[in-house]
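Encode chain A's predicted structure.
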Amino acid sequence: MGVSGQKDVIISVRGLRTQFGEHVVHNHLDLDVYRGEVLGIVGGSGTGKSVLLRAIVGLLHPTAGKISVFGHVLDDLPADQRQQTEQRWGVLFQDGALFSSLTVAQNVQAAMREQLDLPQNLMDELAAMKITMVGLDPSAAHKLPHELSGGMRKRAGLARALALDPEIVFLDEPTAGLDPIGAAAFDALIKQLQQTLGLTVFMVTHDLDSLYAICDRIAVLADQRVVVAGTIDDMMQQSHPWIREYFHGPRARAADASAHSAVT
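Encoded structure for chain A:
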């Protein structure tokens, strides 16, 4: 919170336009992300959820608009300051995006090796700590990605995202491909880490269970922009056709029942 009691905006997107050739994905998109919250990004197929994430972290350049993170417009920063800013976030891509020829420990150390000047024994200790932090057995440190289950690969990817002690973590469909038990365990891990480390979490997801279980707010992409951002209760009051279908359908009711049973 700011001194006036207003929420601290850690990511601000204004007037964003992204397009590929003639295909416009976003147009006049505005979004605020508040420090310390878990924000879920949802929308139908083709609404550009992952495109929005990639634009914020600088992996693609928007056609128009302004993106500020930590109060800085990234495109205005000199290269060295931009690099320092980018060290303050971590990203978990949908498939984990691990280097297949590196062990889990080496994957976690990749960012350390690139950005920091640390002795190997200290990087080994830090990697072991991150691997334990995400709920993996210490023995996983020496395994290659193909030797891990899907859920373990996601946890290894999360350990790598946390390698530089980020303030923001971006998650792209973190529970995709996991069975319900594995997905619920991963949700619980994200919430625990968010609370323990004081993280801000920007999570692209289609998983209703995740929205009910761990998200403080939800932003809905439709019609090339964010049509609404708010709590689950806010979503239930919306008249937009896609939002009504998504949050009032049978899967939504099942997720709601599951969330309530978890609380009780």
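The chain has a mean pLDDT of 91.
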